[in-house]
Specification:
The protein has 22 helices and no strands. By secondary structure, it is an all-alpha fold. It is globular.
Length: 470
């Protein structure tokens, strides 16, 4: 996705970055990159500094170590921050508004209730994996997790199935969508940095996510249920214990339509670009406009006001409250994504990205495997999938020159797959899972951590398989 076309004021900064030449010898630039990444890792993992500050400090240290003066370093970082926020930030905000509306209206509950009511005990893990993926499509992982934890616990209790048989498939659906499918922050940021086509990435992302969800979800849940035998937490004993219940909820069809609308619009644009590239036909122009990510998500929010909000009996005050309450929780995510863009810009402007790209290119290994490996190293070190995605994309950005749209999209997905590898004690998600389901640390490692590794490896294999045919 070339955001400079959507935001013309950002084009000069992007062009200037593209013309950047190395400012120091390769050994100094490589050393600066190591110093910067090491500072980020130490600040996040040891000193527990917020990733926004860690990325900012690491980016400035990298620029200075590479030979930039203070003014150049700060200018490069702030330009990258602004470019990223101007493109990805708008999409993240719209996604957060829609996700909150989906939760507040009871639309998510409607989907869950409809699907679970028609499932047998044998098919229930597969249904829960599907629910996790559907709910995870427009929502951030943490939002989807908080929403679905009561459902997981209630379904496990009422079905009599082991907790892991229900929890693992649902978590697999949520996590796979978070790492592989836009409009989640990590994939969106990588699409922006690498200049990938959002529609193509979305189509490939869904294709790669399906086997990842199946293997890490329903199939692995059979092993997880034997490895981790825990009682269902003594929470949400009745439906009323979930909190205030909606007296009215939108229909299943209305909710599903709202969720799939932006996905369909963006996919239609991708198909139209493939079938009729460069066409000035009015229909093609309309599809291009409606399939633009900002417009597609904005339409989803507007349609959601009617299908979800009105379906739940919301008035203007309730809709305004839902929108207002959706933006505060994503402030940290926006700052992390913006700071990641700033760090990336320092790598590009100093020429560090070119030096690293040349070293990687000379290794002779598959660019897709290397992209996955770089993201894995950063993910394991920092515990953040978003930081891993943004940093890896920044490092690999110079390698995208000459790549066709399909390979660039697969590069995004390889990075996304690596970004979810080996969640452990430095990952906030690890502790969320542990506390919600009453697990010990070894039990969390044997369930959640293995699940994340399976998604990561399956995602890589899926990316490599698709690359054979494109």
């Amino acid at each position: 996705m070339d955001l400079s076309g959507l935001f013309p004021l950002l084009a000069p900064a992007a062009n200037a970055a593209a013309d950047a030449a190395p400012v120091a010898p390769p050994w100094q630039l490589a050393t600066a990159a190591v110093i910067g990444i090491a500072i980020i890792v130490v600040l996040i993992t040891w000193l527990k500094v917020h990733p926004f500050l860690a990325l900012m400090i690491g980016g400035i240290a990298t620029g200075l170590a590479a030979g930039f003066d203070a003014v150049q370093t700060v200018g490069s970082f702030t330009a990258g921050f602004g470019t990223t926020m101007g493109g990805v930030g708008i999409l993240i905000a719209l996604g957060a508004i829609f996700g909150k509306l989906l939760a507040d209206s009871g639309g998510a509950d409607r989907i869950v209730d409809t699907l679970v009511a028609r499932a047998t005990p044998r098919s229930l893990p597969w249904v829960m994996g599907f629910i996790g993926a559907i709910i995870g499509l427009p929502m951030f992982f943490e939002v989807g997790l908080v929403l679905l934890v009561p459902v997981i616990i209630l379904v496990a209790r009422r079905s009599g199935l082991p907790l892991m048989k229900i929890a693992i498939p649902t978590l697999a659906g949520l996590s796979a969508m978070h790492g592989l499918v836009p409009p989640h922050p990590g994939p969106l940021a990588a699409i922006d940095i690498l200049g990938a086509n959002l529609g193509v990435t979305l189509a490939f992302g869904v294709l790669v996510a399906i086997p990842a969800v199946i293997i890490a979800g329903p199939l692995f849940s059979n092993l997880a249920a034997r490895w981790v035998r825990v009682p269902v937490p003594d929470l949400f004993v009745t439906a009323e214990d979930e909190g205030e219940q909606q007296t009215r909820r939108p229909s299943f069809a209305a909710t599903l339509t709202s969720i799939l609308l932006p996905v369909v619009l963006m996919l239609l644009r991708a198909v139209a670009d493939i079938v009729a590239p460069g066409s000035t036909d009015p229909v093609k122009l309309v599809i291009d406009f409606l399939g633009t990510p900002v417009i597609a998500l904005l339409l989803a929010v507007i349609v959601g006001f009617f299908l979800l909000g009105r379906g739940a009996g919301f008035g203007r005050a309730e809709l305004a409250k839902s929108v207002g309450s959706s933006l505060g929780p994503i402030a940290g995510i926006l700052l992390i994504v913006g700071a990641g863009g700033g760090f990336k810009q320092v790598l590009v402007d100093t020429g560090i990205g070119d030096v690293i790209a040349n070293l990687i290119a000379e290794s002779g290994l598959s660019i897709l495997f290397l992209a996955w490996l770089v993201a894995v190293v950063i993910r394991v070190a920092t515990g953040s999938a978003t930081v891993a995605t943004i940093t890896a994309a920044g490092i690999l950005q110079p390698l995208t020159e000459g790549l066709d749209p399909a390979m660039t999209a697969l590069l995004v997905l390889a990075i996304g797959s690596g970004s979810v590898f080996l969640s452990h004690v430095n990952d906030a998600g690890f502790w969320l899972i542990k506390e919600y389901f009453g697990l010990s640390i070894p039990q969390t490692l044997k369930s959640w951590t293995v699940l994340e590794c399976l998604i990561s490896i399956t995602g890589l294999l899926g990316v490599l398989a698709v690359s054979v045919f494109v």
